[in-house]
Write a structure and sequence with these properties.
- By secondary structure, this protein is an alpha+beta fold.
- β5 and β6 form a beta hairpin.
- 36% of the residues are buried.
Length: 182
């Protein structure tokens, strides 16, 4: 059996996609659905739904299994992927609190859908940083930093206080879980 080692930034990139989030939310609501049922429910082509389900499976967030003549999917985290179980639990909690919360989840995931931005967030965990020091800590140029800071601010990860950048408090279950996974 092939062992999965998905990176956090790739998992976030997967979760930043609204279609994948809708599929995952539907699987949490209706575990054991097959591709045809999921595709029909979300008005997707079977091929597109299958492709998106494979992406979720490659991140360890769902399990594909054969039941009789059908291939079904379950929201069962892959035990070989340490981030899968806590993320799935956080996603479920987020949707239980706000059934329409996929937009917020996608926005948060987009913030960490890049290795550089994960490094930037990690550098702020111990304490706020002035931009020049922050850029130095993650070994990037200040012009490159601006692009990433804009995305991190828009996605709800960082804020600027005086002349220092700081992490925003994790007010969302997915954000809190992602911070723990850093």
């Amino acid at each position: 059996m092939r062992q999965l080692h998905p990176t956090l930034w790739r998992t976030c990139r997967t979760l930043a996609n609204p279609t994948r989030l809708r599929l995952l939310q539907l699987l949490l609501e209706r575990p054991g659905s097959n591709v045809s049922q999921l595709a029909e429910r979300l008005d997707l082509g079977i091929s597109a739904a299958s492709q998106e389900l494979r992406r979720l499976q490659s991140r360890g967030l769902i399990k594909r299994t054969i039941q009789g003549p059908s291939v079904i999917y379950l929201p069962v985290p892959d035990p070989q992927v340490p981030s899968a179980a806590p993320l799935l639990k956080a996603l479920q909690a987020a949707w239980e609190a706000d059934r329409n919360g996929s937009e917020a989840i996608a926005r948060l995931a987009k913030g960490l859908a890049c290795e550089r931005r994960i490094s930037l967030v990690r550098a702020l965990v111990p304490q706020p940083q002035p931009s020049d020091q922050w850029a130095h800590l993650v070994r990037t140029r200040s012009d490159n930093l601006k692009k990433h800071v804009r995305i991190l601010r828009e996605s709800g990860w960082v804020t600027k206080i005086d002349k220092r950048f700081a992490l925003l408090p994790a007010g969302h279950p997915v954000q809190a879980t992602l911070l723990k996974l850093l």
